[in-house]
Write a structure and sequence with these properties.
single chain, 140 residues, mainly alpha, elongated
Length: 140
Amino acid sequence: MNDQPAPTPPPYPATPTAPPADQSQVRTWNMLCHLSALAGLIIPFGGVLGPLIIWLIKKNEMPSVDVHGKAAVNFQLTVLIAALAVGLAAFVLSFIFIGLLLIPVVFAIALCSLIFAVIAGIKASDGKDYRYPYSLVLIK
């Protein structure tokens, strides 16, 4: 019989790691986290779904997308809660004609959401962090 030890198998190749993303690509994804909220103009609940989808897809690849995505999702959820609350109050109070005065507030909330999303997108494009005003921290 053969007394030689069995040959050792070749080592497994190293698992390929994702190459580090260049800064322009990171800034682009950061910007898209904020500007994807503009999908709410076309798709119902797109203001929340756009940033949420981008954040969920890219948060593990790029740490800054995790930060920007959380900020965008938190702000859009805050806007959604505020708009629904004021809209419901306007509906209930419209039976005594006071609610009609709250309807412009709902539109102002939506307009501020768009303006702040664009400002945050521009800041992210420049490589800066942006903190939304009056944003609840729902996702940590």
